[in-house]
Queue: 2 jobs
Job 1
Amino acid sequence: MQKPQFVENEIYHIYNRGVEKRDVFMEDKDYFRFIHDLFEFNDTEVSFNLTFYFNSKTMYSEPQYLKDKKNPRKLLVEILAFCLMPNHFHLLLKQKKENGIVRFMQKLGTGYTKYFNEKNNRVGPLFQGAFRALLIKTDAHMLHLPFYIHANPLTLNYGSRTTIVGDI
């Protein structure tokens, strides 16, 4: 699948899964770290190495930009919805800056993979190739997609999405 041309103020469904369909979130703190990374890496400025100030025991971090009130953040994307599953994730993103989605996903993928590999004493890629992206072209698609993304976890315990929410 070829990626769409990313354009400012357009909305995209972004998703990826673990290499060999492996789990990329093994415990609660992995989910928390990824959610934190969604926030931390969504900035045009360079992201600092979180290893130095992210406490994995308490799950607390003090982001550098909160310390520097003079330079407000410049968002790369607007995160409209997200869902994290054990072996994949879905994001609904609106690009705010030129090349924002690509830059954001590069920072997010690299940062989370580095954390995961160090934590689990492993090397190599964590995600199955580059992320996938679909441009949201119609109102119907935009109305359906948040339901699809948020109903994803229901399939873990209850089976088919159609069984749970019916045909929307």
Job 2
Amino acid sequence: MRVDRVSDPSALPAESVVVATYLSGEDLPDSLRQLANAVGIHDLEDARSRGELTGSLYTVTLFRGRPSLLLVGLSRRRDFSDVRWRRAVEAGVRYVSRRGFSHVSVAIPPDLQSRRFSEAAVGAVVAGCYQEQLCKTEDLEVSSVQGMSLLTQDDSADLNGALMLAESTSVARDLVNLPPSDLTPTALGERARSMAAEAGLRVEVLGRDGIQALGMGAMLGVAKGSGEPPALIRLECGDVASDTRLTFVGKGLTFDSGGLSLKTAEGMEWMKGDMGGAAAVLGAMRALGLLKPEGILVRGLIGAVENLPGPHAMKPGDVLRTKNGKTIEVLNTDAEGRLVLSDVLSHALELGATHLVDLATLTGAAVVALGTEAAALVGRPQSWVDEVGDAAAAAMERAWQLPLYPEFRRRIRSDIADMKNTGGRAGGGGVLTAAALLSEFVDGVPWAHLDIAGTAFVESSNGYSAIGGTGYGVATLVELARRLAANAAERINPL
């Protein structure tokens, strides 16, 4: 898909549809009236008087013309947010992408004309055209959109870079949506190799023997129940001599049955998506390989396994020895993601990480706490947590910090091992007992944990996104890497 910037509506292609957002319960903005007049649409007020322009959130109204105009509701002004605006654009593009339009233009409102909103609009267009249909042979819904324009006076945006990021997010979405029979740990490693060759990344994939040689007893414990071997995926780009070594760690459970602590049938329906953290890391590394930030080294580490109740599966009561020597008593085999991450985080420190972020569809408790609207953010020190939270906000991906009190560490004390892998239901706080365990494996390095269980995939229609993987986290990780790269450049070349 091509993307360009247009400052004059009269220069738009006749087959284009212009997506514009507006508010409800108020007069139509003057900028919207001017836009409508410029593209030859003169009946907005008539439509409003007929009740066709309600402005309800994400509702769409199409005015046919050459070009056409599509209005998307944003509800009340007091409820406006950048996330809602981006979703409104995505909803509008989703509406028109299968209605024969070959070109989509997004009108950036005058008060939002900036690099950030222009680049977000590019992401929204690509997301709006996305459809999860990887395995369909009939009733395919193919987007007709081949190009996009941004209608704005601002020319500061890196539109090609935004397009690379958006396409990398689509790659992450595809990975989450693949059937678990097609995306085994080995297959995920093969896809990582192919992606690395495309994006110019350095890559290494270790199998069971290599993982065992590294002493990753917790990861191997989870993998024992499956006939599919585990894989440790290592990706890298940037300056190997840099003293800023940012590492992303992704949970890669390509399928999670719960092991012997078996999930319900309903609970397993979306467990092909339990590698949403790994998908985000792969998508972010692809984007960074193409964007090539300078002055830092970026690594992506993924622990890919299946958690199945096979004849050799780990059992409640087992004790696993992790890479850094600590022992974990397994009380619930469905609390497996933290076991895998404990070893991969230790490996990240062994490789010299100076800054860490892990992403995982880790706990149902995160969904209980925050629903599908935000990821749970935990970490230390506060300055690094703030940095990650600011990057998420800039990327228009919501993350909400939760406190990691010392009491949560006490909840995972074990009588027979260094810790146990669950704090139990009593007392709640499942997001934070899981994070407390992870915190035992990141000593001395700034670390942030994003529990993306509620944000990694969409289970039912919400008006703006295709059902399935969302690619949550890709944009946050790329923004974070860009910020660290800019800081490194400033240290090297101070004003």
